[in-house]
Write a structure and sequence with these properties.
By secondary structure, the protein is an alpha+beta fold. Helices cover 16% and strands 34% of the residues. The protein has a 3-stranded antiparallel sheet, with no helix packed on it. A two-stranded antiparallel sheet has the order 3-4. Belongs to the Nudix hydrolase family.
Length: 123
């Protein structure tokens, strides 16, 4: 799984999937391609929606996060934009990483990884 270590808030220093805001007039797929390229140097072909989740945002707002599966089609892996680091990890490595809150549970709930040990999550 491709993760980036955030270089800025929110989640500075924590690992997460690449992502960011959808710009006005931009489709989700266009945003995924742009954000992955900016944060990792990789070009991707966007696949199906993996899932959605709402997370608290500053000022009482709520971020609606839509994550998509994608296939790398080119580029060279390098941290860029607001990512301090970009790396590939196996699913078994994720529980040992300092992840943004809730990421492990969400990925498990979407059946993208096995449930964390000791959790009641099902895939």
């Amino acid at each position: 799984m491709l993760l980036v270590r955030r270089g800025h808030p929110p989640g500075e220093g924590l690992w997460s999937v690449p992502g960011g805001r959808v710009e006005p007039g931009e489709s989700d797929a266009e945003a995924v391609v742009r954000e992955v390229r900016e944060e990792t140097g990789l070009t991707v072909a966007v696949g199906r929606l993996a899932g959605t989740v709402d997370r608290p945002a500053p000022g009482g707002a709520v971020y609606e996060i839509r994550d998509y599966l994608a296939e790398v089609t080119g580029g060279t892996l390098t941290a860029g934009d607001d990512a301090a680091e970009a790396r590939w990890f196996g699913p078994g490595e994720l529980p040992r990483l300092p992840l943004v809150p809730g990421l492990l549970e969400v990925l498990s709930g979407w059946a993208l990884i096995d449930p964390p040990p000791g959790s009641s999550a099902t895939g």
